[in-house]
Amino acid sequence: MDDLFPPFAPEPNEPKPRRFKPVPVRMIIPNMITLMAVCLGLTAVRLAFEGRFEPAVIAIIAAAVLDGVDGRVARLLKGTSRFGAELDSLADFVNFGCAPALILYSFVLHNLKSLGWIVALIFAIAMALRLARFNVMLDDPGRPEWKKDFFVGMPAPAGALTVLLPLYLHFLGFELSPGLAPVALVYMLVIALLVISTVPTFSGKTVGKRVPREYVLPIFVVTVAGFGLLISFPFEILALLSLGYLCAIPIGANQYRRRAKAEAASAPVPGDEPPAP
């Protein structure tokens, strides 16, 4: 009977169990920043349902700042990864899709009951679709270099900060009564449509890589002045920035059309190639 069930002995050359390599700290730091942004977005939702709308808005703004920092830190530390890119997209959906929608619903849209909730859902889903489209376009190798100066539709952080304009105005003394809830609803729907639209908006990602030496000190002064104004008059500045951004969308779209026409005019026409020698 012992021959039927011989004892198992592993082969001497059997490969050892696979062990995962340690992850460098430089790849963990950007993801930690992203997770802190998610914590701020979720905390903003809690603050909104507690009726503390000012700190809720500040939490969304802080999340937007961290969203702009994590990618740059990853590139600076050479810690970019596919995992970090996917985590960043999920964080953007929470911070700039779900959180603003729930904040506005808790603030004023709940007065419209189911209709207000439907528009909040539309905004959140529009943000998810916009982020998915953005990720797909990153993998397009045939995209012209000049198009990197433009986003397709309103970017997620801008959409989140702009849609909160009714709260900025409320903090400045413009009371948003329940009777004005339809105005906030229409405004939120317009921002949702801009988010998923194909309207080109200026990104500014490739601007400022090189700054003329004579502009360095004025830029420092303007930056300090702007930061001081934002700290002293946060909601006034945010309201002005939101209105200014909305007014600048047609300017960016017009600039995009001009550059597209210039590219089309400079492209060779089929059949006009010089004959081969």
TrEMBL record:
GO terms for biological process: phospholipid biosynthetic process. Pfam families: CDP-OH_P_tran_2, CDP-OH_P_transf. GO terms for molecular function: CDP-diacylglycerol-serine O-phosphatidyltransferase activity. It is an enzyme of class 2 (transferase). Coiled coil: none annotated. Residues 214-250 form the CDP-alcohol phosphatidyltransferase C-terminal domain. Keywords: Lipid biosynthesis, Lipid metabolism, Membrane, Phospholipid biosynthesis, Phospholipid metabolism, Transferase, Transmembrane, Transmembrane helix. It is found in: Endomembrane system. It catalyses: a CDP-1,2-diacyl-sn-glycerol + L-serine = a 1,2-diacyl-sn-glycero-3-phospho-L-serine + CMP + H(+). Its main location: membrane. GO terms for cellular component: endomembrane system; membrane. Its EC number is 2.7.8.8. This is CDP-diacylglycerol--serine O-phosphatidyltransferase. It comes from Methylobacterium variabile. The lineage of its organism: Bacteria, Pseudomonadati, Pseudomonadota, Alphaproteobacteria, Hyphomicrobiales.
